[in-house]
Write a structure and sequence with these properties.
The complex is a heterodimer of chains A (307) and B (237). Chain A is globular, with a radius of gyration of 22 Å. Chain A has 2 domains: 218 residues, Rossmann fold (3-Layer(aba) Sandwich), CATH 3.40.50; 75 residues, no CATH class. With 307 residues, chain A is an alpha/beta fold. Chain A is built from 11 helices and 10 strands. Chain B is mostly helical. Chain B folds into 2 domains: 128 residues, no CATH class; 58 residues, no CATH class. Chain B has 10 helices and 2 strands; from the N terminus they run H-H-H-E-E-H-H-H-H-H-H-H. In chain B, a hairpin with a 2-residue loop joins strand 1 and strand 2. In chain B, helix 3 packs antiparallel against helix 4. The longest helix of chain B has 30 residues. Chains A and B meet through strand 6 and helix 2 of A and helix 7 and helix 9 of B.
């Protein structure tokens, strides 16, 4: 499914005053893409996610799902809910309500009007996708750990079998293990044909390893859009927009500040390593880095979970 | 306290003349308060229909000397008189209540209530606890509204709608909204209790407050004048 936003504005009503959350957003989301929306707190990320998902009606402009306008001029929603867009809001575990995990995950598919056997199949599949065993079905969702609750909540959304999965800060507040699992769930979903993922996060480390395209929001406007390399090249500017570049980019930035001439477009571990080696071999010896141990120190294990 | 006297005065006022005369101070107070008139209008607008209905019902239903006759409907003099009085009472009470809530923060109100209830402490009533409860309840109204909206959005993304043919079904369909709200409220209450304790709150101990309420001469004048208004209204009657 393709989503198109044309000249979208969104204002919140706050005590009789209008607060602009989104200003003049033009955006196309292609089927099968893994898009990350980043920006500092209050930049409009969550609002944009809800507009894309059709939960908020934009106060200006139009949203198109597969070329069909979503809102009538009078503000009625034109396309009925079919579970095509799955949205996990921040802390999705807050949505759990049923007596058992199985019932909760079944809520969405049941609302789709599927026959009971199909619902059951969807529930089993969804739980498997999030790495939970079927035995958990009969448990109350409220006795589970934070990470498990979040995975149950995600299963409840995956059970809809949406075309687009929108995740708002899906890893916030999870331990490293929980984060890894959520990232795995995102990758697995996106690996299937034509499935789109929109990841909302200010965690650039996470964004850098997942996203194909990154959008940076600042005060309700899209200030930058491009591939991770395009975005991280602007290293220092990200900080002006209230974002912390990923750790590897920060290493390069720091070296550049000390007089090196490194290409910031390198952002994966491998690219950065190559960039550093070619820089080091181009010079005789770098005075600042007590070299020698270089090889080991750049081959660190998995990325630390920077926030 | 003043508004209480004022309320008694308004309710006791004889006839429309007296009611509207008593209404004048509240309008003066609104003017003095510096609140934009538009704000007041927006608050009162939805109630105007209600007031008009009161007026019409009273005018039609109370028997008395005929004033206007429209087919079977008879508008009586007494009815019109009563209707105007009732509508006026409600209107000015609302204006006064609106003025109070618009100019005084809920926290100050709760604190004021606490000091009013102070004599109750001698009777071993948990006055402080009561006022804390009230303050907390007021404090969490907007939070709960926000939470409810957030959860209803999350459920809407899973196809949640408020539908159902009969009342039971309608009630059941609210569960996905109500249960998470309860869960988060309980959790929040627990967090709050711990935060309170961590910052040294002990139930039953004497607390001081950042803003102490003091009676100054304008307050005494206000109280006295409202009391006077109320008594004259009753005597005049």
């Amino acid at each position: 499914m393709e989503v198109l936003l044309k000249g979208v504005n969104f204002n919140y009503q706050l005590g009789g005053q209008e607060l602009a959350a989104l200003k003049d957003i033009d955006l196309v989301i292609h089927p099968g893409e893994l898009l990350a929306i980043t920006g500092e707190g209050g930049s409009g990320k969550s609002t944009l996610a809800q507009v894309i998902a059709g939960l908020l009606k934009p106060t200006g402009g139009q949203v198109y799902w597969d070329g069909q306008p979503l809102w009538s001029p009078k503000g009625k929603r034109l396309i009925t809910w079919q579970g095509k867009v799955g949205l996990a809001l921040q802390q999705p575990e807050d949505q759990l309500f049923a007596e058992t995990v199985g019932e909760d995950v079944a809520f969405g598919p049941r609302n789709l009007g599927l026959p009971p056997e199909e619902v059951e199949k969807r529930v089993k599949e969804a739980l498997k996708k999030v790495g939970l065993s079927e035995e958990i079905c009969g448990c109350s969702p409220f006795i589970l750990s934070g990470g498990q609750k979040r995975r149950v909540a995600l299963a409840g959304i995956l059970a809809l079998d949406p075309d687009i999965l929108i995740l708002d800060e899906p890893t916030a507040g999870l331990d490293p293990g929980g984060r890894r699992q959520v990232i795995h769930i995102i990758r697995e979903f996106h690996g299937r044909r034509g499935k789109t993922v929109i990841l909302i996060s200010h965690n650039m480390a996470e964004v850098s390893v997942l996203a194909q395209r990154i959008i940076v929001l600042h005060r309700g406007r899209i200030v930058l859009s491009g591939t991770p390399a395009d975005v991280f090249v602007r290293g220092g500017q990200l900080e002006e927009w209230g974002l912390l570049p990923p750790p590897l980019t920060r290493v390069l930035l720091e070296l550049n500040r000390k007089g090196a001439d490194l290409n910031l477009a390198a952002f994966t571990l491998k690219e950065v390593e190559e960039e550093l080696w070619s820089w080091l071999s181009g010079r005789k010896r770098c005075p600042h880095l007590a070299c020698g141990g270089g090889e080991n120190s750049f081959r660190a294990g998995p990325l630390p979970a920077w926030r | 306290m003043g508004i209480l006297f004022y309320g008694i005065g308004i309710l006791g006022a004889p006839g429309p003349g007296g009611t509207y005369l008593l209404g004048i101070p509240s309008l003066v107070a609104v003017a003095v308060s510096g609140l934009p008139a538009r704000f007041l209008w927006r608050q009162l607008r939805p109630l105007i229909l209600f007031l008009v209905i009161i007026l019409i019902l009273e005018a039609l239903l109370i028997p008395g000397a005929e004033l206007v006759t429209l087919g079977p409907l008879v508008v009586s003099r007494e009815g019109l008189y009563q209707g105007l009085t009732a509508a006026g009472r409600v209107l000015f009470l609302l204006v006064a209540a609106f003025l109070l809530t618009a100019t005084t923060s809920p926290l100050d109100l709760a604190r004021g209530l606490e000091s009013l209830l102070k004599p109750g402490r001698k009777l071993k009533l948990p006055v402080e606890e009561f006022s804390l409860m009230l303050t907390l309840a007021l404090r969490f109204v907007p939070t709960l509204l926000e939470e409810a909206e957030r959860i209803s959005k999350a459920q809407a993304a899973r196809g949640f709608t408020l539908e159902g043919r009969n009342l039971l079904k309608k009630g059941m369909s609210l569960l996905p909204l109500v249960v998470p709200l309860f869960v988060s409220t309980l959790r929040r209450a627990e967090d709050l209790a711990q935060a309170l304790e961590a910052r040294g709150y002990r139930p039953g101990s004497v607390r001081t407050s950042l803003k102490t309420l003091e009676m100054r001469w304008p307050d005494y004048i206000f109280l006295l004048s409202t009391l006077l208004l109320a008594t004259t209204a009753f005597i005049w009657r």
